[in-house]
Specification:
This protein is α+β, with helices and mostly antiparallel strands. Helix 2 runs antiparallel to helix 3 and helix 4 packs across helix 6. The chain is globular, with a radius of gyration of 21 Å. Strands 7-6-9-8 form a four-stranded antiparallel β-sheet, with helices on one face. The chain has a three-stranded mixed β-sheet with strand order 1-2-5. The chain has eight helices and nine strands. The longest helix has 21 residues. The protein has two domains: 127 residues, no CATH class; 141 residues, Ribosomal protein S3, C-terminal domain (Ribosomal protein S3 C-terminal domain), CATH 3.30.1140. A hairpin with a 2-residue loop joins strand 8 and strand 9.
Length: 278
């Protein structure tokens, strides 16, 4: 067996330029990694509590360590809001953009402990706006085709978010984490209700839509979704697989974006895996 290493360490080396030792003191890399992951996880949880899905969250340092930049790309979802009274109706409202200065300040304080003091900048990329602009201009025809293909789910809360994900698959890369978080969020909501079967049917229809539009134009080569757990509280776990296209998992040359999310439910822990062959 070869030596195992933490893949997050490669992520940190790629995104940042942290000095491991200095003239006055020497800092262990494990300490920097722990502080970095704790600060970034707090930032991600802050966005997710406000009904957002995080695609990327990292910070970069300039070569002279005098300029710090935090980059966050997120997709705003719609949330349910119930009215009190006899006739309870469900309304869907957009979540406004919120302030992130407090969490970002904690991340800057962590960097300050390790001697990285300088100018600061936060870059927020709203993927919802990016997808809506593409739907109106570049992918209006594809959007109308996908909307007509999934029109039987137009009254569901995940319908519009699914169309935004379909648009992002056409114009951006590395969307496996975004798809897995989208599935995990709504699976956690519907796993005890009868709507879970309709949501799983939506996933199969979504992949058929990807096959008819994206795969034919070679925008992506394949998409695979795997959900494993105790469906409907069964005594044993089962695996549901949704796959379209080609997913060569035995080669190293192929560029495959992979994501794994664990969903904590009342029936136990479900695992959601997503492979995107770009």
């Amino acid at each position: 067996m070869g030596q195992k290493s933490n893949p997050n360490s490669f992520h940190l080396k790629k995104k940042t330029s942290i000095v491991f030792g200095g003239s006055h003191r020497s800092i262990e890399y494990s300490t920097i990694l722990r502080e970095y992951l704790s600060a970034s996880s707090n930032l991600i949880s802050f966005f997710e509590k406000n009904h957002c899905l995080i695609k990327e969250c990292f910070f970069t340092l300039s070569s002279d360590k005098s300029f710090i930049t935090i980059f966050i790309s997120f997709l705003i979802l719609k949330r349910l809001k119930k009215k009190q009274g006899k006739n309870q109706k469900i309304k869907v409202k957009n979540v406004p953009l919120f302030e992130t200065t407090l969490i970002a300040r904690n991340l800057f304080n962590v960097l300050k402990k390790f001697g990285h003091v300088g100018s600061k900048r936060i870059i927020l990329q709203n993927l919802r706006r990016v997808a809506l602009k593409a739907q109106k201009k570049r992918f209006s025809v594809k959007h109308s085709e996908a909307k007509s293909f999934l029109k039987s789910f137009n009254k569901e809360i995940y319908f519009e978010s699914g169309l935004l994900l379909f648009c992002l698959l056409n114009i951006t890369r590395n969307n496996a984490s975004l798809i897995s978080k989208f599935i995990a969020r709504f699976f956690r909501i519907f796993h005890r209700t009868k709507k879970i079967n309709k949501f799983l049917l939506f996933l199969s229809k979504f992949l058929q839509c990807v096959e008819f539009i994206c795969l034919k134009e070679n925008l992506i080569q394949g998409l695979k979704i795997q959900i494993k757990g105790r469906f409907s509280g069964a005594s044993r776990s089962r695996i549901r697989i949704f796959e379209k296209g080609c997913i060569p998992l035995q080669t190293v040359v192929s560029k495959i974006d992979y994501s794994l999310i664990h969903v904590n439910t009342s029936y136990g822990v479900f695992g959601v895996k997503v492979w995107v062959f770009e």
